Amino acid sequence: MNRVIDFFRQYPELAATLVVGVTAIPLHFAGVSVQWYVSAFALVMAAILSWDMVKDIMGGAWGVDLLAITAIVSTVAVGEYWAALIVCLMLSGGESLEDFAAERARSQLTGLLEGAPTVAHRLKEDESIVDIPVEEVQVGDVLVVRPGEVVPVDSVLQSEHATTEESSLTGEPLPVEHSRGDRVLSGGVNGADAMVVKATACAADSQYQQIISLVRQAQESQAPVVRLADRVAVPFTLVAFVIAGIAWWISGDPVRLAQVLVVATPCPLLLAAPVAFLAGMNRAAKEGIIIKDSGTLEKLSRIRTVAMDKTGTLTIGHPMLVGTVTAEGVDDDELLELAAAVEMFSAHPLASAVVSAARQRRLLIPHAFGVTEEAGRGVTGTVHDQQIHVGSDRWLAIEHRMPNAEPGQIHIHVARNSEWIGALIMEDSLRADAQATVDAMRSMDVERIMMITGDAEVTATDVARRVGIDEIHHSLLPAQKVETIRHTTHPVAAIGDGVNDAPVLATADVGIAMGARGSSAASESADVVIMLDDIFRASRAIAVGKRTMSVAMQAIGIGVGLSIVLMFVGATGIMPAVVGAFMQEIIDLACILWALLAARPGTHEVPLRGVAERSQAPHPESNVVEYTPA
């Protein structure tokens, strides 16, 4: 009952139309005349529309309402009250659906707000810790950040060493090693050890809160989308009035006016685009693409620029083993087993990547004893009565010969009894379908494709070169990404997955979020959410938009064209109004059937290939390099 009451309160015009229809139909079949009942309601609706239309005209906007009012009044005048009720239902129902979509688009950023820290641990002079609301943190406060917690405010590290995961801020998937005095951004996730920091900003001025503020500002600044029906309705209305007026003037019979206008109802306009948009959105949903409103489909069809994030979008988004370098006599599986044995006791993100690689190869990981870890440096343990060190080459300080790391790669060195036996090459691997995605977008007449990333120039340039992107904007913070989007060629679509991408997705004409493994903040602020871990579907979203708009315009063209033909027939007086109303229903049916073609892909669209096949990372064995000493 509460839901019914809420429905009436939120959509009174649609609810009233449904009530009139539900009560009038049984009475009609019972032999009771309902013409005055339905006609009176339709005229009331016309009066409401007239008042809304006057306000729109005063605001400089014309739309489908003028034709709708004329259609309601003319159909009531010629006794076609059921047609008038259908027009009322289409108008109120369409406006309610648009209102519902707008409410979804204005939803709060629950993902961002849930991830934002609410409590900080202040370290007092007597070494005791007191929990305070994050809003009460002052510049200069000394705070303790426990393992796995989010850094509450921008700070300077007081501990000797610390490791943070800052992919949500900068997009860089590899952990960041900090030393005393380094700047630590709010929103970063602390590693395995507690760290002590000194606040350099309050919560409101910190990086994480600035991201939230940027998203809100961007959403509030989005211009409203003009309905497709409104743009077509103005010339169609003028043509209908001209034909009806000429027919009345030549014949001198006012009935000719109604005979023309009864076939000039805006139903083709009201039905064609919504049905096509619904079919397109349903088709996209079946392919794992959630498009939040019909306006987004229209904007997708006009995209001229695509801005793509790197980490988690063009790349997998987390470090993976892509190769090994081994000393003579050492097998790469043996190297990985020994490294995984000691890394199992570490909470470092790279350690988990090493263990995952060993398990993917189905290796038997031996047990390690006496494992110790030096934060930010490496891990030591005993395996098969041999001392194993896993960490950076500077920490091991063991002489070896090995190629320098390629852009975007990091080397994890392994030593056995103080002798270097090899290294594991870790990389945030490129998605297998990244280049195909870029190529598909270019085939759809996207003029500019650029990369916007917080990564360093060397890494960004390497990835861009491999996928065929020429325009690169690197080393950007979220605010700088937003400015880049604002000054590029519009309409622009932005594709990303992290918290740091949320402001960009909200600022772009169309934000496309990789929602399968990306942050909920990015999904909340985006217009399109890719539910599968498949970047190729971002290009498919653009294809769906173009296909849907093409079908919608074709359906509208069919409806408008047939209506104009019937207007000329009605102007001759040979077609009674009741026949005209029946013919209009046939036109509506033709429009609906054509609009449903949006549920099918176009003949030139590239078919979706297997998601798993395109998303597989290269197997480590494919990149094994054997080290041979001089």
How is this fold's topology laid out?
Layout: H1 2-10, H2 12-29, H3 35-58, H4 65-77, H5 81-105, H6 110-115, E1 119-123, E2 129-133, E3 142-145, E4 155-157, E5 161-165, H7 167-170, E6 176-179, E7 183-184, E8 189-190, E9 195-199, H8 207-221, H9 228-251, H10 255-261, H11 267-286, E10 289-291, H12 294-300, E11 305-308, H13 310-314, E12 320-326, H14 332-343, H15 349-360, E13 369-374, E14 378-383, E15 386-391, H16 393-396, E16 409-416, E17 419-427, H17 434-443, E18 448-452, H18 457-467, E19 471-473, H19 478-486, E20 492-496, H20 502-507, E21 510-514, H21 520-525, E22 528-530, H22 536-572, H23 577-595, H24 611-615, E23 624-626
Parallel strand pairs: 11-18, 11-20, 12-23, 18-19, 20-21, 21-22
Antiparallel strand pairs: 1-2, 1-3, 3-9, 4-7, 4-9, 5-6, 5-8, 10-22, 12-17, 13-14, 14-15, 15-16, 16-17
Helix pairs in contact: 1-2, 2-3, 2-5, 3-4, 3-5, 4-5, 5-11, 9-10, 9-22, 10-22, 11-22, 11-23, 12-22, 14-15, 17-22, 22-23
**How many DSSP helices?**
24
Portion of residues in helices?
A: 40-55%
> Major β-sheet, in short?
7 strands, mixed
Oligomer: single chain
Question: What is the beta-strand fraction?
Answer: 15-25%
Strands of the largest sheet, in order across it? 10-22-21-20-11-18-19
* Cα gyration radius (Å): 32 Å
Spatial gap, N to C terminus: 84 Å
Total number of beta strands: 23
Low-confidence runs: 101-113, 218-226, 610-630
Mean pLDDT figure: 78
Structural class: alpha+beta
Tell me, briefly, the overall form: elongated
